# Entry
Amino acid sequence: MIRERLSGNEAVATAMKQINPDVVAAFPITPSTEVPQYFSRFVANGQVDTEFVPVESEHSAISACVGSQAAGARTMTATSSCGLALMHEILYIASSSRLPITISVVNRALSGPININADHSDSMGARDAGWIQLYSENNQEAYDNLIQIVRINEHKDVMLPGMVCQDGFITSHAVENIELLEDEIVKTFVGEYEPEHYLLNPNETISIGPYDSSNFYIEHKRQQAEAVKNAKRVVMEIGKEFEALSGRSYGYFEEYRLDDAEVAVVIMGSAAGTAKETADRLRAQGIKAGVLKLRMFRPFPGEEIAGALSHLKAIAIMDRAESFSNMGGPVFAEVKAAMYDLETRPKMIDYIYGLGGRDVRVESIKTVFDALQEIVKTDETGDVYRYLDVRE
Amino acid sequence: MIEIRWHGRGGQGAKTAALLLADVAFETGRYVQGFPEYGPERMGAPITAYNRIDEDPIRVHSNIYDPNFVVVIDDTLIEPAKVAKGVKSGGAILINSKKSREEIHARLGGYKGNFFVIDAEKISVATIGKNFPNIPMLSALVKIAGIMDEAEFVSGIEASFHHKFATKPEVIAGNMAAVKLTLQEVNA
Amino acid sequence: MKKNNQNVTWKEILPGGTVWSPGNSEEFITGDWRTERPVMDWDKCKQCLLCAPVCPDCSIPVEGKKRLEFDYDHCKGCGICVNVCPFDAIKMVKEGK
# Structure
């Protein structure tokens, strides 16, 4: 184990260096720019033998990734915000063609109004594109998740692309302590990418990406859905394997002081740590507060979440993205749907928070717990769809 | 936990100082955070940067509103950045200025806590040959806040300089002289 | 090589729509797109072979320097061969007659 201090972007670039992918194709966009910037330095210094492809847009970046992964090369890229949006069309090509590409997403608000700071609207816009999505609380998780997702994506029962998300600037540009694995350990863990079928195989001539008529398309989608289902099992298997060599445990989510909790927040990304600190401070005052930090949003671990939250009295689901459904954000919609099959359900409210980099303080999360306690006390849910820290 | 807020203008090295502090504090075995708050990215624009330093892992990812220490690299920011806001009792504000304590105090909006006025430009020009006030201010902070042992800081920052200035090692000697002169001149 | 057929299930269908067998477009019978078919008058044909290379569907097989009968499984009835034939040896006839 190597004790280091790195920003989130440095951590991700370091993981990429240790993975040593065959191809990286990227176009810079704030706040993920540093990832290909650091990585291209590793390429120039001969620390990796990756083919680095600088392209002229994100649409080209992910298209180059599709071509390269289809050729049989382990391929990665990084992007943010409008860059991920510009990739949107090709994200579906990658997942439906069953190409296990990896993207390091550094979450940033989508324009407009133009804003460069953190929220989850970019990756939430890609949530139905058939990619695995893991969210990271800090630089350590961004690093660990990136190493694991390569194995998850490339598992023969999965063969899907995946993205590892971290919050722009808040973790991407913050230097914090981190424990790195030795190069050799990462190399052995990720192994070689050995696809069963690939374009550059001289012994097997194949075509990728043909027209799929209505007699076949839905069968392909059903098969893709099965791969997503398999990913749930594989995420756990890889998490266990990773824990054995790192000592750090990874599942679908982290349950923080939930066992005997009466009120809890469900949250993803950098604000989860702030929420845990808040729960600790409330516990010191005798309030039974807990946190469920969601790591995996795709596939969505509905049954497991319902199991972990069923005993609570009131829950706030935190959404760092709007979906303009007028019924709350995307995490709320999923959690609420997952809870429906329970015999008795906690009261649930949604908070849209932290959009465009609005700072999330311990005091902010405290007001959420206050609202939950009020719900428990009055037995009235009140407004289900709320905004946190917005000027009224 | 020690929490620090830095105020400077783009190009004056406030972010660099915060990251260097994270670096040297990390080397003493502690948990650190060093992060900037991004606004308009251009020379001269006011910027804020932060540090958290603790014996235990740090989980909070928010800006710092009630710092133990505030470092002001440019005294024209005293009023617009409201530099005295939230400073914890027992903490201090460090200001780079050629002005008198009385003049500075009058501009701190009724602030009653400790503050230090440091002529970082003078130290920088005497040692580095140019006005780079961030390293003297960082050194003053380490001494005044007692973040670490001075000898530990001197060897730690030298290692960081060798890393940071790997492509221009000629500036290391001047910066090290600035560190040492500051530690000598500042009366904590 | 595994192939899809019209009744393949989602469990058996080739992942991603990838085509594992090269040159399998031959198995796709495009001849039924045709509304008119080219018909040979072998008495007029001099075997000049001008027709074979212009056929966009490779539906005029050539063997031993001689063209053979049309491949009606793949000929779409475009009539280009009729246009290039200098001897009026090919004519178009409505399908179904």
User: Anything to note?
Assistant: The longest strand of chain B covers residues 46-54.
